């Protein structure tokens, strides 16, 4: 069935022209949501297609966390009902796990598995007194104290000392090699990587620091 031109609309994000069905019995075939699909607090037309909304929600989740999940077109935060409606099943599952972990993180002695391929976590009853935690889901060993992979060659005290020495060395390097960017209102610390003028500016690379 060919889509009439009057039922076509361009997505403001991907710029693709897609069908927008206004007939209720055909709405399931629409690439765009209906105005009624959004919460009443979102006071705007929905010119983003469903695919771009789903992708935007995934980007929000990964960059800002579950607490900031909401409308990609306005500052309105969404309830679970609307996140589930617009997010892909995979993203909604990840969103649900993130929310659960945030809640569990307030539970005494809860610790997330430090494995890069595991998203599980558990309560470690012994806490810092016995910092080795073995994940019940994957068997990966995590340091409860440092929230990182277990360090069998070092004690937690030695890891603390290594971290302090690393921080001191970083601070000495910053004080010696970096300076504040001369740009008005910029507080970044920068390092000159070569004495060359490129497009009218000295080629520098930013170094994390405080203003």
- Based on CA inertia axes, which overall geometry fits? flat
What percent of residues adopt helix (DSSP H or I)?
25-40%
E-strand count: 10
Mean pLDDT: 80
Query: How is the biggest beta sheet arranged?
Result: 3 strands, antiparallel
What structural class results from the helix and strand content? alpha+beta
Order of helix and strand elements from N to C terminus = EEHHHEEEEEHEEE
Fraction of residues in β-strands: 15-25%
Q: If strands are numbered along the chain, what order do they take across the biggest sheet?
A: 5-6-7
- Measured on Cα atoms, how large is the radius of gyration? 25 Å
Count of DSSP H/I helices: 4
Structure description:
The chain is an alpha+beta fold. Helices cover 28% and strands 18% of the residues. It has 4 helices and 10 strands, in the order E-E-H-H-H-E-E-E-E-E-H-E-E-E. The protein has helices at residues 50-64, 80-86, 89-104, 156-177, and strands at 8-10, 17-19, 110-112, 121-123, 132-134, 141-143, 148-149, 179-180, 189-198, 201-207. Residues 22-27 and 194-211 have low confidence and may be disordered.
Task: Please outline the helices and strands.
Layout (H helix, E strand, L loop, with lengths): L7 E3 L6 E3 L30 H15 L15 H7 L2 H16 L5 E3 L8 E3 L8 E3 L6 E3 L4 E2 L6 H22 L1 E2 L8 E10 L2 E7 L4
Antiparallel strand pairs: 1-2, 3-4, 5-6, 6-7, 8-9, 9-10
């Amino acid at each position: 069935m060919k889509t009439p031109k009057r039922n076509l609309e361009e997505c403001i994000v991907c710029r693709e022209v897609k069908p927008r069905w206004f007939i209720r019995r055909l709405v399931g075939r629409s690439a765009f949501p209906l105005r009624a699909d959004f919460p009443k607090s979102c006071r705007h037309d929905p010119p983003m297609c469903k695919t771009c909304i789903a992708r935007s929600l995934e980007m929000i989740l990964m960059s800002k966390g579950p607490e900031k999940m909401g409308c990609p077109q306005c500052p309105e935060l969404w309830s679970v009902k609307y996140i589930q409606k617009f997010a892909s099943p995979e993203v909604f599952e990840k969103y649900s796990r993130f929310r659960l972990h945030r809640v569990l993180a307030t539970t005494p002695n809860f610790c997330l598995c430090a494995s890069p391929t595991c998203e599980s976590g558990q309560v470690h009853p012994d806490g810092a007194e016995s910092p080795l935690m073995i994940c019940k889901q994957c068997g990966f060993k995590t340091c409860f104290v440092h929230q990182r992979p277990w360090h069998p060659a070092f004690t937690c005290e030695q890891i603390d000392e290594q971290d302090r020495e690393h921080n001191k060395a970083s601070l000495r390097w910053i004080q010696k090699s970096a300076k504040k960017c001369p740009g008005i209102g910029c507080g970044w610390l920068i390092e000159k990587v070569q004495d060359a003028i490129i497009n009218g500016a000295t080629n520098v690379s930013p170094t994390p620091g405080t203003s």
